[in-house]
Amino acid sequence: MVRSEGTGTDTEIEAKTRAVTRQRGRPRSFDRETALEKAILAFWEHGYEATSVSDLTRVMGIGAPSLYAAFGDKRSLFEEVVREYGARYGSFGERALAEEPTARGAVERMLREAAAEYTDPGRPHGCLVIHAATNCTTPDVEESLRARRNANIAAIQSRMGAGIAAGELPAGTDTAALARHTGAIIQGMSQQARDGATKQELEALAALAMTVWPPMP
């Protein structure tokens, strides 16, 4: 057989060339951002466990090989979905905590915007981070979302602590309990939105939740 400068037979060279071509991949015949958005909506609507790879390929409009090549396996895709959901839809709370001048104002805005976000008619209702691992049998998925929820509560408590330091909350305020209360209200609003509660009903709930706040010093 003919050899090429000590690099192997012609057959071996052709095999290596095909392997490199496969690694580089062909140009994608789909828009990755559009496909990712459809995956977000699927996991948001049905949760991690109930959304199969075949469900994903159907709603994303791509084949399984394209899904694996572009996003990895289902678990990897879900991790990216959660990150993108946070950036596209779930960042209203973070913005409220960062932008409002008082802790009370931040929480009030957070609850008010949750009422609007969780009932938006163009999207699945509720919050993906709260609901996507319900009845999930994949422990690391469940734990990752639990960690995100707990981190959100910790951020709220930290903002309340800053409020005490600034003199806008009484020194004896139980920030841990108040932050947990806020987290419970947000999670409850998410579930009620999925059960059909309207924006106006959730706004009324948010206003009522704020009545437990201690008065300004």
Automatic annotation (TrEMBL):
InterPro entries: DNA-bd_HTH_TetR-type_CS, Homeodomain-like_sf, HTH_TetR, Tet_transcr_reg_TetR-rel_C_sf, TetR_C. Residues 1-10 have a biased composition (Polar residues). Keywords: DNA-binding, Transcription, Transcription regulation. Residues 29-89 form the HTH tetR-type domain. Residues 1-29 are annotated as: Disordered. Coiled coil: none annotated. Signal peptide: none annotated. This is TetR/AcrR family transcriptional regulator. It comes from Streptomyces sp. R21.
